[in-house]
Amino acid sequence: MSMRSLWRGPTSWRKRGERSVSAEDLEKYETEMELTLYREYRDVVAIFKYVVETDRRFYLCNQVDVKARSEAGEVFFEVSMSDAWVWDMYRPARFAKTVKVLTFKDVNVEELNQAEIDPPKVS
Question: Is the pLDDT of residue 110 over 90?
Fold first, then answer.
C-alpha cells in the first residue's frame, strides 16, 4: 500500500475506507458511559459505608483511614481504603480490594446514612 493511499487529510492517517469518529459520536459515547456509570453507582451505593472525595476521584468504601504526612516541609494526605468502588468511567473494573491515594489537596470523607440513600431513578 502506498503512502498516497493512506493519506486522508492534513492531520489523520487512516486506511482506505475507515470512518473517522465525529465529535457528535464521541459526545454520545461519553454520555452513554456516564449514564452506565451512574446506574452502577445507584446499584452499589447501599453496600458501602463511606464516600471519599479527593481532587481526582470519587470513591465508595467500607473502611477508610486518612493520615496527614509531612516530608521536607510539605504536608500531604495518605488515604487508605478497603472494599472500594471507584467513580471512573474509563476503568474496566471499578471494584478494588484496597486503594491508597497520596494527595496534596483536600480530602473529604463522609459516612453514609443508609436510611437517606435513595438516588433518583434513571431509565
Answer: yes
Domain assignment of residue 7, yes or no? no
Higher pLDDT, 56 or 16: 56
Decide: residue 81, CB within 10 A, 0-12 exposed, 13-18 middle, 19+ buried.
Answer: buried
d(CA 99, CA 122): 29
Instruction: Give the C-alpha separation, 96 to 99, whole Å.
Output: 7
Mean pLDDT computed over 51-70: 95
User: pTM score, two decimals?
Assistant: 0.69
- Domain holding 57, by residue range, is 22-112
What per-residue confidence (pLDDT) applies to 20? 76
For 14, the 3-state DSSP assignment is coil
CATH number at residue 41: 2.30.30
**CA angle 19–24–30, rounded 5-degree value:** 100
